[in-house]
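## retry 2 of 3
previous attempt timed out at serialization; input unchanged, resubmitting
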Amino acid sequence: APWQRGTDENTNGLLREYFPKTEDMNSCTKDYIETCMEKLNKCPRKCLGWKTPYELFFSKALRLI
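## retry succeeded, writing output
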């Protein structure tokens, strides 16, 4: 059930901001997709202890705190 997969459903909501259901994905350019991917991967997430997916995957800090 969707309410049991909070992180997945939240991520789907974030993706829908850039790629609405009414839009055809085939019309998106590679540059647009890469820009959206970079924005999403560099956005802090509560479930990751306010780190970004980028920070965890590449073991690099993006902030000076």
